[in-house]
UniProtKB/TrEMBL annotation:
Coiled-coil zones: none
Catalytic activity annotation: 1D-myo-inositol 1,2,4,5,6-pentakisphosphate + H2O = 1D-myo-inositol 1,2,5,6-tetrakisphosphate + phosphate; 1D-myo-inositol hexakisphosphate + H2O = 1D-myo-inositol 1,2,4,5,6-pentakisphosphate + phosphate; 1D-myo-inositol 1,2,5,6-tetrakisphosphate + H2O = 1D-myo-inositol 1,2,6-trisphosphate + phosphate; (2R)-2,3-bisphosphoglycerate + H2O = (2R)-2-phosphoglycerate + phosphate
E.C. numbers: 3.1.3.62, 3.1.3.80
N-terminal signal peptide: 1-18
Organism (species): Linderina pennispora
Top-level enzyme category: hydrolase
Protein name: Multiple inositol polyphosphate phosphatase 1
Length: 416
């Protein structure tokens, strides 16, 4: 009987795969919400018309690394799930759970970062067309995937520039969480709140999600295993472009709610719903960026870090208010309309290769103006009255004491 059940399960999965394989890939990709494992959006970069009296003078570019393989703990989760369900053998590429690949930049990530570099070269050609080797800077955290991402990006620019790799022990800008005891302290304290909110979410949504998957998979899975299956869908799409295998089990409504379940954690560990330190831990990064824009000699600096680099910078700058609603915390009890309107949505903010760009312009009166882009799309900053162009002086004022901070003091736990 168990053997027959296994055969029927495989047939059911194969039928689902066949149906979805014939669907339009681009349309399918656009529907899924895959949190931090989302492929970089391959839309055409928006070229917003700017006033004719402004000139681009500098660029500061902060990027997450490209698509990577799962980390060791996620590989272990995937193996555990594979022991519980039966799927066609070709659904599980061996390299996806090869421990030697853990955390490494994938070929897809290399390609995406190279393409980002090509678009940067096209957009900022006048700035990058310089013979001064010190005019263009490149920085990376010491993580191999960030270094490899930087090198892929740099290869598209064809510049003889040096990559400055920041040792983790001294990194206050790209991998700052490793040098912030206060953040580590509050991360542990957030565990209870995260568990409570996830429990609320599961009480409202788990039965419906489990039922949908049981119809497709022929097995009733606990939410922890469903979260792993959702993770597999993200990696399968980002690494291999497969929308008809693991992702054939995840429809758009399911992916939407599972992303919200993930964002409960991310919004507290790295985002605006966590401890106050989350709003300040990127202070060295934003200070360095603003100082370079106002006083630095470099025309462009490109920095390569991690998902948390982008999330911490976004949290300090309140970018959730530019991406959607920031009126309420991300919770397990959010209604559909509240969840769709939320500004903190990881698939929009931190897909693989995510980036935040500061473009500095000068008008005819020599006033310095900043335009912000998130994943190459211009955004309106709340601090600047909803304008695309914001006086640099206004940003200095908006970020207050975070400008010129000493991260060691900001992150001290001595007073706890």
């Amino acid at each position: 009987m168990s053997k027959l059940y296994g055969i029927l399960t495989l047939c059911l999965i194969a039928a689902v795969y066949t149906v979805h394989r014939s669907s339009d890939e681009r349309q399918y990709r656009g529907k899924l919400h895959l949190s931090t494992k989302t492929s970089y959006p391959h839309h055409a970069s928006e070229q917003l018309t700017l006033p004719s009296d402004v000139t681009l003078v500098k660029v500061q570019y902060v990027s997450r690394h490209g698509t990577r393989y799962p980390m060791l703990n996620d590989m272990a989760r995937i193996r555990k799930l594979l022991g519980k369900i039966q799927v066609p053998a070709h659904w599980m590429p061996p390299d996806l759970i090869d421990d030697q690949n853990a955390g490494k930049l994938a070929s897809t990530g290399h390609t995406d970062m190279h393409r980002l570099g090509q678009r940067a070269l096209k957009r900022y050609r006048d700035l990058l067309n310089t013979t001064a080797t010190t005019a263009i800077g490149f920085q990376s955290s010491e993580s191999a995937r960030s270094i490899d991402s930087a090198m892929a990006f740099m290869s598209a620019l064809d510049l003889s520039s040096h990559l400055n790799v920041i040792p983790r022990a001294n990194d206050t800008t790209l991998a700052m969480k490793y040098n912030c005891p206060l953040w580590s302290h509050y991360k542990q304290k957030m565990s209870a709140d995260i568990s409570s909110q996830v429990a609320i979410f599961d009480s409202l949504h788990a039965a419906r999600i489990q039922s949908r998957l049981e119809q497709k998979l022929g097995a009733l899975l606990p939410m922890g295993d469903i979260a792993t299956l959702y993770l597999l869908c993200g990696y399968d799409l980002a690494l291999y472009g497969n929308h008809g295998k693991w992702c054939s089990l995840i429809d758009e409504p399911m992916s939407f709610w599972l992303e919200l379940r993930n964002d409960i954690k991310y919004s507290r560990v790295y985002g605006p719903d966590g401890a106050d330190i989350n709003r300040h831990i990127a202070c060295s990064l934003v200070s360095e960026i603003l100082d370079e824009l106002e006083h630095g000699s470099a025309l462009a600096i490109f920095k390569f870090g991690h998902a948390e680099t982008v999330m911490f910078l976004s949290t300090l700058m309140h970018l959730d208010s530019a991406l959607g609603s920031s009126d309420m915390a991300v919770t397990g009890a959010m209604s559909l309309s509240q969840a769709r309107a939320r500004g903190f949505q990881t698939s929009l903010l931190v897909p693989f290769s995510a980036n935040i760009i500061f473009e500095l312009y000068q008008d005819l009166s020599h006033r310095l103006l900043v335009r912000m882009l998130v994943n190459e799309q211009p955004i309106r900053l709340q601090q600047c009255g909803g304008s695309y162009l914001c006086p640099l002086s206004t940003l200095h004022t908006a970020f207050g004491n975070d400008v010129g901070c000493e991260l060691a003091k900001v992150c001290s736990v001595l007073n706890l």
